[in-house]
Amino acid sequence: xxxDLVDKAATxxxxxxxxxxxxxxxxxxLNSGRHPLVDRTPGMGMADVALLEIIEGKxxxxxxxxxxxxx
Length: 71
Fold this sequence. Notes:
Elements (H helix, E strand, L loop, with lengths): L2 H10 L3 H16 L14 H10 L16
Helix pairs in contact: 1-3, 2-3
């Protein structure tokens, strides 16, 4: 995993545990056959692809829906 990409992604996702979870989930998706959302260069690992996707804003955190208060 490229340390520079980790540092850049950490400026996008400030909460490190969330960043780790995002990368982990995206790596699982890529390994199961999902296509990368960025151009992949030779020697680039799946974690680097996931980090680059986060840096470029192609993978984002979905905000949970607000609970609807019943009246």
